[in-house]
Amino acid sequence: MNNTIKFKIDGKEIVAEMGKTIVEAAKENGVYIPTLCNFPGVPPKGGCRMCTIKINGRFMTSCTTPAAAGMEIESDTAEINDLRKSIIELLFVSGNHFCPACEKSGNCELQALAYKYQMMVPKFPYSFPLKEVDASSPKIIKDQNRCVLCQRCMKTIKTEDGERYFAFENRGDKLEVILDPELGQKMTDEIAKLAMDNCPVGSIIQKEVGFVEPIGTRKYDKEPIGTDIDV
Amino acid sequence: MSKKIIATASLAGCFGCHMSILDIDERILDLVELVEFNKSPVDDIKKFTKRVDVGIIEGGCCNSENVENLKYFRENCDVLISLGECAIMGGLPALRNGIPIKECLEEAYCDGPTVGLNTEKIIPNDPELPMILDKVYPCHEVVKVDYYLPGCPPRADLIWDALVALLTGSEMDLPYEVIKFD
Ligand code: SF4
Ligand code: SF4
Ligand code: FES
Question: The complex's ipTM?
C-alpha cells in the first residue's frame, strides 16, 4: 500500500509519510513552522500555540495534527505571523524576562522567536510577577521568572527508572514546574546539561558554566531560528 | 535643508545607551551635519529652548523626577523614542519590581551587609530627593512612545539607521543582527 500523502503549505507541495504531524512533515520538506513546547521524540501537547496554522481556513496546532492528503495549509502569512507574535509578547509580559542578565540569551528559543517576528516591545502591559529562584540543587538553578511551562523538562529528563526530575505544582496562575528536591540533590552533570539544553528558555541553568559563548557566536546571534530547516 | 533638532535624556539607565550613540564612530561627523542637539546630557542644556523633532529616552521611570522629565520630553518633542531595554521594559532596575518598596529600601539602607555606617538605620528622606516609585515603569506605560529601539545597549548601527531614516524620511532597513535584547 502506498504510504505517502501529498498536501500543500503556502502553495508548496509537501510529500510526507502517513501519520507524521504537520510540523514533522513540513520540516522534512524544508518548511519551518515555529514551535516552542513541541520537542522531537516525545508526544506533542499543543500547549503554547506557537505552531498555529490554518488548515482549509481553520486555525489548528501543527504539532498535534497529523498531516492528511489534500490539506491546504497557510502558515507564513501576515495574519498568522501576527498571531504568533502576540503569543510571544504574552509570554514576555507574563514572566520576568531580563534578557541582558540571562545566561540563555542568544541561545533562547523564546528570544529567538521574538527576533524572528521583530518584537520591538510587547503590546501588553508588563505584569512583573513575583517569582522564586530555586538554587538548592548543587547542579542547576531553576528560575521560575523565565519558565514558560512547556513541560519539555518534565517529559524528557528522567532517571534510569523513569522517575521525573521535574513536576507541576499548584494550579491556575500559581502553576509552576518545580525540581524534585531529592532528585535535584543527586543530579549528575550530564543530566544537568541535558535539562538546560532541553529547556527552550533560561529557566534551567547549569551551575558554574554561564556565559561561556561570547556574543556573536551564540546560536541565534547571526541567523533567525528555523534557518537550518527552511530551504 | 535646515537641521533637525534632537534631545536626549537618561532616566533610570546606566548611560550605556548614550555610550552606544557614540559608537557610531566617525559617522558622528555626518550626524552633526544632520542635527542640532537641544536638551541633553551631551551638551548639558537643562531646559528645552526650542521645539524638538526627535527625543531619545534611555532608562525607565524609577522615581518622580524621571516621570516629570519624561513628561517634559513628551510635551516638547514631536517624536519620542524609547532607546534600550530599560526604557522599553524597565531593564535591570526593574528586577526590584516584584518586591515591596519598603523591603527594598530596608535591605538597601538598614539590613544589607554593607550598611554598617548607617547605625541609626535612616532611609534617606531629604525633601530634595525625588520620591522613589512603587516599581520601575517602562516609558510607554507613562507617556505615549512612538518608536522602540531594543538592545542592552542597542547596536550603534541600529541607532544610526533609525535616526537617518527618521530624519530624512527614508525607508528603514532592519537586518537580523541589529535587533537584539542584550
Ligand atoms: S529566558 Fe530567553 S527571553 Fe527570557 S530572559 Fe532569558 S534570554 Fe530573555
Ligand atoms: S523549565 Fe524550561 S523546559 Fe521546563 S517547563 Fe519551564 S520552560 Fe519548559
Ligand atoms: S509547538 Fe505546537 S502548541 Fe506548542
Answer: 0.92
